Q: What sequence folds into this?
C-alpha cells in the first residue's frame, strides 16, 4: 500500500505523474497567501470589542469609562519576592525609570511624590483649597485655641514640623487639606515607599498614570513595557518579581491567553486528527485534502473580517479558527462517500445538493450573529459564515481537480464498531434522551444564563485576581456604586460634585455611607474658592484678632507675620482651575481619575464607599433632581448589559434557526416537488437537531455551565454541523439496487469520521484556560455527539443490512 | 519582674560608669574611634534629661524634663514627664509617638519624611557607637575637651540641611552629656542628667 494513495485502482493513470503535486502546490500557495495575509491584516486585542453596546445612559457611561475612561490609563504594580530594603530600592529605581521614560503623567510610590514646587503651590492656595476655611477659624477664640495647641505641639517631638508650618498656618488649613487627601488609604510607608499593608510577604506598590489615551493600544503596551524595562534596568535581586496590572496589561494578557490556547489546541487537535485520519484512510494525501479547504476557509474568514471591520480582534480570530475546524467535515464527506470507480468530481456533483443545503443552512444560522450588535459576535459570525462557504466551495470545485485520479477510500470500520453503529441506526431508545433532557431542563428551571461581564472576557482569572488584590492594597477597590456628573465645563461639574457632597455629608454623618471620593475634594469649584476668599478677614482685622488671641501667651510680636501675609495674599489669588495645575502633578493625577474632559464635555465621578443604605443613597441622588447627576449601580448595570446582549443574541439565534428551517423546507420542498413534502422533510431533518440542542442544553445546565452569547454561537455551529449528519444519514438513497448497504455504510462511515474529527477538535477546547473557548468547545462537542446519535437513531432502517 | 530588675541593673551600671568616668579611658588619648568604641560597648542605659527649646517666635524657651532609655542595638525611648507627658520611641525603622493626655498615638517609618532619620540617627547612632551610619548622614567634627569630648554633626544632604543645620554633642568617655540641635525652628539643648532617684 503506497503512502500517497491506496489499493484502489487508479481510474485515470497517467493524468498526473506526481499524484500529490497539485495538492501540495495548492497547500504551498495557501501557506504563502496565509503568510501574506497575517502580515497585512491588523490584529488587535481591544477589550472593548468584547463588550456589548450599552442601552441605558448608565450602561453607556460605564462602557465608555471601561473603553477609554481615565481609569484605563492607570497601571498598578507590585514588586515582591525579596527583602524589604531591596524591594524599596527597586521601587525607587522603577519609579525613577518610569518618570524618566516620559510616558507617565504621574508615578506614585511613596510620600516624596509631593514635590517642592507642588507643595509650595498648595501651601500658597491653602485657604482656597482647604475644607477647613470657615469664618470662625479666623475669629479670636478659635485663633487662641489654635495658638495654645501650637504651643503644646512645639513642646512635643513633632515641633520641627509644627514650627515649620505652624506659624505660617496656625489654623491648620494646610494639614487639613493634606489630611483630606490621604483619605482612607491603607498603604503603609516603609523605607520611604509604599508597601502593601497586612500581606504575608512584603510587596512594594507603585501606581502610574499613562499620558496616552486608553484607546491608544500601542502606547498602552509601551507603558507596560516601560515598567518591565525599568525593572530590568534596576538589576533586581534573585527572586524579585514585578507584577503589573491595568487595562493595558489586560488586553495583552487576554490576547496571549487566547493565543496560547489556540496554539495548544491547533497543535494537539491537528496531531490527533492527523492520527485519526491516518488510521481511517492510511493516506497522507487525505491529510492534505482536508487541510486545503480548512486553510482556504480560515484565510477567507480572516480576510472578510479584516475587510469588513478594518482589523481582526485576536480573540475573534482565535475563536473563529477553532470553530472553522468543522470545515474538515466537507472533504471527509466528499472523499468517503465516493463510490468505487466514481470520479471525485462526479461524487462532488452528486453530493452537491445536500452539501450545498447543509453549508447554506449553517452559514445562514451564523450570519444571524452579524446583526447581534455585539462586535465580537459579529466578527465571529462573519468569520464563520465566510469560512464555511469558502470551505464548501473549495471542496466542491477545487478538491476534485486537486485530487485527479486519486482515490482515497476509508478502511472498513472495525467490526464491533460497525455492528454497534448498525444497531444504533433506526434504534428508537436513544430518542428517550430528548424527553429526559426536557424534563431535566424543566426541573432546573431552564438553562442558566451568565450575568457576569467578566466571564465573557478572555482575561485570565489569575490576572483579574492580581488586579483586585493590587487595587485593594492601594486603597482603590473596585467600586459598586458611582455617581456620574456631566457639564459643559469643569466648573459646572465641580459645582455639581459639591452639591452631591453636601447631600452625602449627612449620610456619612449618620453612618449610612462610609465616605466618598469627589473631584471637589482635590479642587473646589471657582465659586467655592471665591466664597472662601470672601470670608478671609482683612489684614487689619486679622492683626487685631491675632493680638487679642495671643494675649498672655509667650509669642513674640510678629510671630504670626507669615500667617498674616498668607491670608492677605489669598485674597488676590486667582482661583485654581484644572488648567492651572501644571505644577501639581500629584494633584492632577488624583483629580484626573475623577474629572476629565472628552469631546468638549466635562465629566466627573463621585465615588461612594462603604454604602450601607443603598435605597437612601438612591433617594438622596434622586432628590437632587439634576439630569446631569446620575447614580450608576455598577454591578446591576453590567449585569443588565450582559442580560440585554444575551437576550439579543438569543433573539438573533432564534431568527437564524427559523430562517434555516424555512430554507430547509423550501429547498427540500423543491426537491420533492411539493411544499407539504418539503415541510415534512424539513421537520424530519430538523428533529434530530432540535433534540440535540435540547440534550446539549440539559447537559450544559447539569454541568453547571452558565450560558453566554458565545454558547449560543457554539449551539448554532453545532446545529449547522448536525444538519450535515441529518441530511446525509436521512437522505442516503441507494444508488443502485443491491448497493444500498454499501452506500449506507459509506455514508455512515463518512459521517462518523466527521463526528470524530469534530469531537477531537472541540473536545480538546473543553480543556482550555480561556472560559469562552472552554464553553464553545464543550457546547460543540456535546451538540455534535448528540446530533450524530439522534440523526442515526432517526435514520431509516436498512432492511438489506445484515 | 524581669523588666524592672533589668533596668535597675542598667541604672546601677550607669551609676558606676558615671562615678568613675576616667576608669576606662584614663591613659589613652581620646579619639572619635575610641569614643565610638566606648559607646558601642554600652548595651543599655538610662538617664534623665532636661530640655530647653528656643524658638524665634517665642519670647521664652520651652522647657521639659523626663527620662531617656537606651537598649542596643537600636531602641531609644525619650519619655517626657513634665510639663506634658509624651513618649517618643524609636526602634528599628519605626518611630512611635504617644501623648497620653490627648490619647494620641502615632507611628511612622523613619524614612517617611526625609528629615526624620538624620535627626534620629544623630543621637541613636551616636549611642550605638555606629560610626558608619553617622558618617552616612553627617560630616563629623570631633575634638577632646577637658575630661570629655565634643562632636559636631553637619547633615550631608542639602534638603536635610534646610531643616536641620547641625547637631553638637558633648560627652565623657562612653557617656553623652548634652546635645545641641540647631534647626530651622530654633535651637534645642538637651542636657543629660543622672537618672531620677525615683527609678
A:
Amino acid at each position: 500500500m503506497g503512502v500517497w494513495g491506496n489499493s484502489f485502482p487508479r481510474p485515470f493513470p497517467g493524468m498526473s505523474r506526481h499524484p500529490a503535486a497539485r495538492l501540495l502546490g495548492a497547500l504551498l500557495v495557501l501557506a504563502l497567501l496565509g503568510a501574506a495575509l497575517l502580515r497585512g491584516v491588523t490584529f488587535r486585542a481591544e477589550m472593548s470589542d468584547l463588550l456589548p453596546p450599552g442601552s441605558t445612559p448608565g450602561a453607556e457611561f460605564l462602557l465608555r469609562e471601561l473603553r477609554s475612561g481615565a481609569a484605563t490609563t492607570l497601571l498598578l504594580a507590585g514588586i515582591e519576592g525579596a527583602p524589604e530594603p531591596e524591594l524599596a530600592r527597586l521601587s525607587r529605581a522603577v519609579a525613577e525609570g518610569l518618570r524618566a521614560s516620559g510616558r507617565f503623567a504621574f508615578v506614585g510610590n511613596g510620600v516624596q511624590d509631593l514635590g517642592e514646587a507642588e507643595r509650595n503651590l498648595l501651601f500658597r492656595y491653602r485657604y482656597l483649597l482647604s475644607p477647613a476655611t470657615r469664618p470662625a477659624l479666623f475669629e479670636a477664640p478659635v485663633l487662641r485655641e489654635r495658638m495654645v495647641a501650637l504651643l503644646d505641639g512645639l513642646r512635643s517631638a513633632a515641633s520641627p514640623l509644627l514650627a515649620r508650618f505652624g506659624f505660617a498656618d496656625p489654623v491648620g488649613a494646610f494639614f487639613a487639606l493634606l489630611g483630606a487627601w490621604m483619605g482612607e488609604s491603607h498603604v503603609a510607608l516603609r523605607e520611604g515607599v509604599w508597601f502593601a499593608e497586612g500581606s504575608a510577604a512584603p510587596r512594594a506598590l507603585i501606581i502610574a498614570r499613562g499620558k496616552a489615551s486608553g484607546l491608544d493600544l500601542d502606547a498602552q503596551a509601551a507603558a507596560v513595557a516601560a515598567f518591565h524595562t525599568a525593572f530590568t534596568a534596576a538589576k533586581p535581586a534573585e527572586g524579585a518579581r514585578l507584577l503589573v496590572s491595568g487595562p493595558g496589561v489586560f488586553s495583552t494578557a487576554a490576547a496571549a491567553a487566547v493565543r496560547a490556547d489556540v496554539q495548544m489546541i491547533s497543535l494537539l487537535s491537528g496531531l490527533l486528527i492527523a492520527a485519526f485520519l491516518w488510521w481511517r484512510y492510511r493516506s497522507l494525501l487525505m491529510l492534505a485534502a482536508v487541510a486545503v479547504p480548512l486553510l482556504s476557509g480560515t484565510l477567507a474568514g480572516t480576510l472578510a473580517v479584516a475587510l469588513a471591520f478594518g482589523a481582526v480582534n485576536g480573540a475573534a480570530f482565535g475563536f473563529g479558527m477553532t470553530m472553522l475546524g468543522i470545515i474538515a467535515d466537507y472533504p471527509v464527506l466528499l472523499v468517503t462517500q465516493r463510490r468505487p470507480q466514481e470520479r471525485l468530481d462526479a461524487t462532488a456533483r452528486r453530493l452537491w445538493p445536500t452539501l450545498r443545503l447543509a453549508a447554506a443552512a449553517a452559514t445562514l444560522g451564523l450570519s444571524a450573529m452579524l446583526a447581534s450588535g455585539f462586535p465580537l459576535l459579529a466578527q465571529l459570525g462573519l468569520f464563520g459564515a465566510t469560512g464555511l462557504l469558502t470551505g464548501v466551495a473549495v471542496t466542491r470545485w477545487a478538491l476534485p481537480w486537486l485530487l485527479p485520479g486519486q482515490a482515497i477510500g476509508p478502511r472498513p470500520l472495525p467490526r464491533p464498531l460497525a455492528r454497534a453503529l448498525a444497531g444504533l441506526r433506526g434504534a428508537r431508545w436513544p430518542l428517550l434522551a430528548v424527553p429526559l433532557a426536557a424534563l431535566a431542563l424543566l426541573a432546573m428551571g431552564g438553562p442558566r444564563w451568565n450575568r457576569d461581564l467578566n466571564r465573557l472576557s478572555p482575561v485570565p482569572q489569575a490576572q483579574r485576581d492580581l488586579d483586585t488584590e493590587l487595587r485593594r492594597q492601594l486603597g482603590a477597590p473596585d467600586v459598586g456604586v458611582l455617581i456620574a456628573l456631566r457639564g459643559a465645563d469643569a466648573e459646572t461639574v465641580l459645582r455639581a460634585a459639591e452639591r452631591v457632597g453636601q447631600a452625602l455629608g449627612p449620610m456619612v454623618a449618620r453612618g449610612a455611607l462610609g465616605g466618598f471620593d469627589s473631584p471637589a475634594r482635590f479642587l473646589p469649584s471657582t465659586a467655592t474658592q471665591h466664597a472662601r476668599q470672601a470670608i478671609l478677614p482683612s489684614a487689619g482685622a486679622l492683626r487685631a484678632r491675632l493680638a487679642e488671641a495671643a494675649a498672655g501667651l509667650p509669642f513674640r510680636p510678629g510671630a504670626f507675620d507669615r500667617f498674616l501675609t498668607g491670608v492677605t495674599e489669598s485674597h488676590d489669588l486667582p482661583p485654581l482651575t484644572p488648567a492651572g495645575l501644571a505644577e501639581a502633578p500629584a494633584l492632577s493625577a488624583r483629580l484626573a481619575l475623577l474629572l476629565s474632559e472628552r469631546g468638549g464635555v466635562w465629566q466627573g465621578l463621585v465615588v461612594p464607599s462603604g454604602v450601607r443604605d443603598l435605597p437612601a443613597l438612591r433617594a438622596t441622588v434622586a432628590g437632587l433632581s439634576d439630569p446631569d447627576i446620575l447614580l450608576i449601580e455598577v454591578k446591576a448595570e453590567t449585569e443588565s448589559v450582559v442580560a440585554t446582549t444575551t437576550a439579543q443574541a438569543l433573539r438573533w439565534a432564534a431568527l437564524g434557526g427559523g430562517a434555516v428551517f424555512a430554507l430547509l423546507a423550501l429547498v427540500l420542498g423543491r426537491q420533492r416537488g411539493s411544499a407539504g413534502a418539503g415541510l415534512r422533510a424539513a421537520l424530519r431533518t430538523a428533529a434530530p437537531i432540535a433534540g440535540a440542542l435540547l440534550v446539549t442544553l440539559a447537559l450544559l445546565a447539569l454541568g453547571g455551565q452558565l450560558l453566554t452569547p458565545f454558547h449560543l454561537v457554539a449551539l448554532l455551529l453545532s446545529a449547522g454541523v448536525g444538519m450535515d449528519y441529518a441530511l446525509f444519514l436521512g437522505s442516503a438513497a441507494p444508488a443502485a439496487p443491491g448497493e444500498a448497504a454499501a452506500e449506507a455504510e459509506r455514508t455512515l462511515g463518512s459521517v462518523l469520521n466527521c463526528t470524530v474529527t469534530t469531537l477531537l477538535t472541540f473536545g480538546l477546547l473543553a480543556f482550555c484556560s480561556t472560559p469562552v473557548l472552554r464553553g464553545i468547545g464543550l457546547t460543540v462537542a456535546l451538540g455534535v455527539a448528540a446530533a450524530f446519535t439522534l440523526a442515526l437513531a432517526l435514520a431509516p432502517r436498512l432492511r438489506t443490512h445484515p | 519582674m524581669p523588666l524592672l530588675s533589668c533596668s535597675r541593673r542598667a541604672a546601677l551600671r550607669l551609676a558606676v560608669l558615671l562615678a568613675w568616668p576616667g576608669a576606662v579611658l584614663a591613659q589613652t588619648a581620646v579619639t572619635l574611634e575610641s569614643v565610638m568604641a566606648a559607646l558601642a560597648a554600652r548595651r543599655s542605659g538610662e538617664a534623665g534629661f532636661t530640655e530647653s527649646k528656643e524658638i524665634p517666635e517665642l519670647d521664652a524657651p520651652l522647657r521639659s524634663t523626663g527620662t531617656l532609655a537606651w537598649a542596643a542595638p537600636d531602641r531609644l525611648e525619650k519619655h517626657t514627664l513634665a510639663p506634658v507627658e509624651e513618649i517618643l520611641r524609636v526602634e528599628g525603622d519605626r518611630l512611635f509617638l504617644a501623648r497620653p493626655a490627648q490619647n494620641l498615638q502615632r507611628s511612622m517609618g523613619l524614612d517617611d519624611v526625609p528629615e526624620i532619620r538624620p535627626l534620629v540617627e544623630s543621637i541613636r547612632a551616636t549611642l550605638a557607637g555606629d560610626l558608619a551610619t553617622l558618617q552616612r548622614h553627617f560630616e563629623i567634627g570631633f575634638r577632646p575637651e577637658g575630661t570629655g569630648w565634643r562632636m559636631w554633626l553637619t547633615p550631608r544632604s542639602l534638603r536635610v540641611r534646610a531643616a536641620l543645620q547641625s547637631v553638637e554633642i558633648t560627652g565623657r568617655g562612653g557617656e553623652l552629656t548634652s546635645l545641641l540641635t540647631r534647626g530651622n525652628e530654633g535651637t534645642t539643648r538637651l542636657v543629660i542628667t543622672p537618672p531620677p532617684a525615683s527609678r
User: Anything to note?
Assistant: The mean pLDDT of chain A is 83. The interface with chain B takes residues 111-112, 151-152, 154-164, 167, 188-192, 554-556, 558-560 of chain A (CB under 8 Å).
